[in-house]
Amino acid sequence: MTKHFLTGLELDQTKVLNLLKLAKNIKNQPQEYNQALAGKSIVTLFEKPSLRTRLSFDIGIHRLGGHAVYLDQQNGAMGARESVKDFALNISTWADGLVARVNHHSTLETLAEFSSVPVVNSLCDLYHPCQALADFLTLFETYDDVSQIKIAYLGEGNNVTHSLMLLAATLGTDFVAVCPKGHSPDAQIVKQAEQIAAVNGASVLVSDRVEAAAGANVLYADTWVSMGNKTPIEQVKDTFMPYQINQQLVEACGAQTILHCQPAHREFEITSEVMDGPKSKIIQQAENRMHAQNALLVSLLNKDYV
Ligand code: CP
Ligand code: NVA
Q: Which of 53, 160, 224, 258 lies 20 to 30 Å from 288, alpha-carbon distance?
């Protein structure tokens, strides 16, 4: 059966640990992997804009000896000229893998249903699992034992929150989402994360009180307005400003590490002082997108999926 990576839940704790170990090896000994995808072509399909995802996949695939083919919506939206099903049926006759950033998770499910090659979710409305892998690769480089730390995510409960929360639960990391009322993460996904966390001796909490971030080792921010939402950020400023990651909050929580998936809106969800400050691992985190994804692609496209 073709293996896909749509929610991140395809990987249990052992598989995630193996994958992150492989990512570290690829990062540290790139020459050993420069033919790992030789002869393979991977289509990277985008319904939404991207800087990090597009470039980290393209350049990453090139570094593994493979070939990335970028497909955006300039020749028409997927599903308009032909169905999503026909996209999948056609692409999988030529390509060895399909990486897709889509508006709706259901599009990924359709692609996966009809694709005979692995489909990777590179962001949808509900999940951003490649981001979470890079986030935890960065945390593994920072902490000896991620089961001993607490992550506080502040802002809008969204795709990034969901994937981070699920991976934290899988790895036994305590997690709190601190979001204004009406902007909590999806209740079903929170429930799922709680169940996974319980098995791994960790906690998942959702709160609208910034005090819930106290004692967090890691503070994590994302935009207050995700792609596809046309609301101007200025319009939500009053609601979200109490959740901004600034120097005062970092000190109040006693946090040592600051993460942000980017793109960042400086002086909105995070101040430049913190983003560019000594505790920020944000650029390392962006670099790690490539290494984590390369490990994922090597695992998916070779027969031994970690
Ligand atoms: N973090 C992230 O996915 O960035 P892009 O939207 O630029 O790809
Ligand atoms: N939540 C953001 C993440 C961007 C990488 C969005 O979906 O736009």
A: 224
Helix and strand numbers, DSSP H then E, in the chain: 11, 9
Amino acid at 52: R
75-120: per-residue pLDDT in tens? 788 999 999 999 999 999 999 999 999 999 999 999 999 999 999 9
What b/e string do you get for 143-182 counting C-beta neighbours within 10 Å, with b at 16 or more?
beebeebbbbbbbbbbbbbbbbbbbbbbbbbbbbbbbbee
* SS3 category, 166: helix
User: How far apart are the CA of 19 and the centre of ligand 2, in A?
Assistant: 24
Position 304 pLDDT exceeds 60: no
Q: What is the complex's ipTM, to 2 decimals?
A: 0.99
**Residue 142: CA atoms inside 13 Å, Cβ hemisphere, count?**
24
**CA–CA dist 62, 184 (Å, integer):** 39
What is the value of pTM for the model shown?
A: 0.98
* 158, 165, 229, 231: residue to mutate for ligand 2 pocket, most atoms within 8 A of CB: 158
Which residues lie across from 121 on neighbouring strands?
100
The ligand that comes nearest to the alpha carbon of residue 122 is: 1
Q: Which ligand is nearest to the CA of 265?
A: 2
How many CB atoms within 10 Å of residue 109? 17
Catalytic residue chosen out of the listed positions 4, 52, 54, 128: 128
d(CA 282, CA 288): 10
Report residue 208: phi and psi, to 5°. -100, 5
| C-alpha 124 to ligand 1 mean position (Å) | 11
Q: Which of 167, 127, 71, 116 is nearest to 301 (CA)?
A: 116
pLDDT at position 303, please? 66
